[in-house]
Amino acid sequence: xxxxxxxxxxxxxxxxxxxxxxxxxxxxxxxxxxxxxxxxxxxxxxxxxxxxxxxxxxxxxxxxxxxxxxxxxxxxxxxxxxxxxxxxxxxxxxxxxxxxxxxxxxxxxxxxxxxxxxxxxxxxxxxxxxxxxxxxxxxxxx
Length: 142
What we know:
By secondary structure, the protein is an alpha+beta fold. It has helices at about 20-25, 35-40, 75, 90-105; strands at about 10-15, 30-35, 50, 55-60, 85-90, 110-115, 115, 120, 125-130, 135-140.
């Protein structure tokens, strides 16, 4: 096993409208928005949403892609989407999120079973897209 002190800190999602994305992740997904007032006032480059006490999703505007030059060649790959981000919930949280997404009219995949992930084989899973086309998977284990 890897170092047990290693944790996933954040994932950057490219979005067209960070404020709209923050509203979606708050209202439809149920995640806490962070730094929205600071972003609105122009004090920070992007807002975020909290997944849990250790992990956030940064909602970076597409316009930042050209400024991603922290390493040689970084700007050439900035703005490309990841395949998907997976959120693991309790069984009750899984059902509540699916119901909330349905209330918001968010299209979802059918429920899958027995997919492999970080904690082994998940009992159930499904996929949906945010308004910018970022794909999220939701699952629960046993």
